[in-house]
Every structure is written in structure tokens, then in C-alpha cells.
Amino acid sequence: MPFGKERVEAIPRIKMTEKKLKITDLARLTGVSKSTVHHYLNMGLLHSGKKEGLSQAFYDWSHLSRLKRIIELSTNQKLPLSRIKEVIAQEKTMSSLASKDSAESLITAFEEEKRVTRAQKSELKRVEIMDAAIAIFSKFGYEKTTLETIAESLDIAKSTVYLYFESKENLFMDCIDRLTVVAVPEEAWDELRREKHYLARIKKRAFAFHKAFHNYMGILTMTKALLGCDNEKLVEKAKNTLSLMTLPIAKDIRRGINSGIFREINEELVSHFFLAMGEAIGFRLMMDSRYTIEQALEIMFDFISKGLLKTDPQGVTELEPAPACSGEVTDLKGVTFSVQNIRFGGRSYLPAKLGEADVKINPNVVQNLRFCRKGNFFSAEVTGKDGQIQTAEVDGTLILSGEVSLGGFSIELKSVASVMVFNAQKPLTELPVRA
Q1: 271-285: pLDDT as tens digits
Q2: How far apart are the C-alpha atoms of 398 and 352, rounded to whole Å?
Q3: Bigger pLDDT: 61 or 174?
Q4: What are the residues whose beta carbons fall under 8 Å from the beta carbon of 207, sequence distance 6 or more?
Q5: What is residue 69's predicted lDDT score, i.e. its pLDDT?
């Protein structure tokens, strides 16, 4: 993306055949003001130049090297001038006859630093204008927003905005591109990268989305509206932006599918469902303060994970909640946990298949559940109270949850070796965690 069209005068290249430098040359090359150079001379930080005539003094490459060292100590090490003077006094005295190669290197380094600094400042100003414009476009809409309003909000001249953007339409187009950044603010990126659980990462992204929602909601609505306009350029811009906004969600869904956490599903469409639901919740939260972002997202993800219907697609009525059971859960490493209120995917029963039939195993009527993988199938060996054993196919990605003496407990079934069900509910204090 090009930087703004800031008109910055190029640094005149000093000819290497010149043996004399003026204070103006030192200031221009290093970015230090002439008055600061004079101050360094008066303090003795910078050695005197060679005088010619009554008032004219000239400087050489050793002064340029010394100035570079002063800048390094001041900027990088944050040393005061008094300490810098001590450091320089302890260092080897610089020769006033630096080689042509070292002089070339110094000139190149200073010029490159100035180019980078100008480019960075230019891009920062460009981003600052876009972020202000996004908020104003969101508040007033495209037609009622003017470049004057945007400039006034930043306390800059309208002509400064024109240095970076040719027109309001050009600015608006770039603001649409920036939606992919402001929808999830930069400060949330590190936390998202550190989160390894895909559903938790989607939740954290949704939280960041809503924290910043009021700043960009209007331009997001306008972007979606562009899909129906006659301008093909704007239509493509909107399509690309909305696709980029949902791409991270789609990637996390696909990774979750590949790791066995999510069931196989069309991640592209579902990622747009997430965006639509997130936008709807954002507007709902603005209607009143009855719900916090956390509460709204909890309801949203509960709906996503459990759905809406009270009956399954085949019309089989959901079982009434069975009494919570307790038991000893042993994982594949042989560690056993005493767990109360055992749930399977949030349910009081274990969904399974016996042959072609769907069954809902009530753990209160069994003695033991043993789990194992056979080829591509994950199965449960169910021992009933009467001692009979049956084998049922179950979903290994289902989460077994409950409470232990230390707090909440959850584990995927594919990591469970067995569940020994207690005959009656026992107090949590009688259910120590043991290995």
C-alpha cells in the first residue's frame, strides 16, 4: 500500500570531494538542529571546527561521527548530556581524517534513517486519518461526511488530508480496506496468537470485535450495502473486505475440524454466520445496558454449541434431564479423578449408536464405561447394573465435564480410558483426586 503523498524535500547529497562541512551540512545530515549543534560545541561534547577567517568555521567527517555517537547515546540509552560527555571522554578520540569509505557509510546511514523516519511518519499520519474517517463515516454516513469534518477532528488542515488521499471516495475505499484491522484491534492480536484452543480463540476474537464495534459499525453496514450497488469496483471491494474479515474465523473452524474438536461443516458459510451474529449482538448491546459483552457472547456461543430445537432432527423427543451422576474417571495415562455432576457434551446422558439405532445411555443405570478406538471408530464398552456388556459407537471429541474438589473438570472422551459410576451421589469432600 503506498505511503501518503507528503512533499518532503530530498536531502542534498554532499560530494565526497568536499573536505569542508558547515554546521548547516551537519544539521541537514543528522536531523539535529543548528542551535543544538552549537549547544554541543559550547558544552565540549563536539570538538571545535577549523576556523577560516574571522568568523567562518568548517568541520570534517570526525564531527559527523561524533554527532552520530551522541545521537546513539541519547536516543538508544537515554543518557543525559552530562553522562554522554563522560562516556565520549573515555572513548578513543576520533580522527579528523576519516576515510572516504567511512564517510560514505555515515552519509548512507543517515540518509537511510531519514527516509525510513519520513516513511514511518507518513504512514502513521495516513492511518490516523483513516481511523478518524472510519469513526466519522460510521456516525454520519458517506453523504454527510466531509473532508473538512475529518480534518477538524484531527486539528489539521484539509490540504493535509489531500496529501494522502485524492478524494473522499478514495479515502472511503481505503477505510473499507482498513476494516479488517480495526474490527479486531492490534492490541488483541498477541493474545489471539497465544491462544491454542480454536473455539476459545474465536470467542476472544468476538470479544475484541465488540469492544471496538461502536467505532466502525456504520462503515461495516455501508460495506455490506455496497454488495447491491451498480459500481463493480465498489462491489469487488466489499466482497474482498468481508471475505478477509471472516477468513481468520474460517481458518480456526477448519483447524478445529482437522483436530477433531468440531464436526465436519462448511467453514466458509459458518464464518459469515459468526460475523452476522456478532454484528446483530453489537447493535443489541447498544440498545440498553442490560447485558454485558461477556453475557451476550456466552448466550451466543451456547446457542452455537447446543442449537435451538428441543427435539433432534428425526423428531425424537429429548430425554428429561437425568439425575446428575458421580464417578471415577481414568484417563489414558492412568490418572483417576473423582468427579461429580458428570456431563457428556453438556448432557446428562451419553449419546451413542448401537448398530443403526441412536441411543442415549443413562450413566445412572450402568456400572462402568470403558472407551477404546478400533480403526476409525471410537467405542464405549457399557457394563450394566445386571452385568451385561454392550458395545456402542460414540463421538470421541465429546467433552466429559463435571466438578472435582479443586474446581471444574473437562476432558475429551478420546482421552478417557474408563468411567466407574457410583451407585449414589457422594459429597465432594469424599471424592479426592488420586493417581
Answers
A1: 999 999 989 999 999
A2: 11
A3: 174
A4: 293, 294, 297
A5: 83
pLDDT in tens, 102-151: 555 665 665 665 565 566 677 788 888 988 998 898 888 888 899 999 99
Residue with cell 543525559: 80
- CATH domain 23-118 topology: Multidrug-efflux Transporter Regulator; Chain: A; Domain 2 (1.10.1660)
Long-range pairs for 152-160: beta carbons < 8 A, 24 or more residues apart: 154/128, 154/129, 160/125
C-alpha pair distances (Å), 37 with each of 82, 410, 434: 15, 67, 73
Number of Cβ within a 10 Å radius of residue 324: 15
What is residue 355's predicted lDDT score, i.e. its pLDDT? 83
Kind plus residue range of the DSSP H or E element containing 420: strand 416-421
What pLDDT is recorded for position 343? Answer: 87
- Residue type present at position 285: L
| CB-based burial, 175-214: b 16+ in 10 Å, e otherwise | bbebbbbbbbeeebeeebeebeebbebbbbbbbbbbebbe
Checking phi first, is residue 234 left (phi over 0); if not, alpha (psi -120 to 50) or beta? alpha
Predicted structure pTM score: 0.46
Q: Return contacts of 39-42, CB within 8 angstroms, 24+ apart.
A: 40/67, 40/70
- Residue pair 282/213 in contact (Cβ under 8 Å)? The answer is yes
Q: Could you state, in order of their start, the residue ranges of all structural domains in the chain?
A: 23-118, 186-304, 325-430
CB 340 within 8 A of CB 323: no
CATH of the domain spanning 186-304: 1.10.357
b/e string for 386-409 if b means 16 or more Cβ within 10 A? eeeeeebebbbbbebbbbbeeeeb
3-state secondary structure of 217: helix
Residue 271 and residue 330: Cα distance in Å, rounded? 36
Gap between the Cα atoms of 382 and 384, Å rounded: 6
Q: Which residue has the cell 472435582?
A: 404
For residue range 48-86, what is the model confidence (pLDDT) as tens digits? 888 876 667 888 777 877 888 888 888 777 788 888 888
Cell digits for 26?
551537519
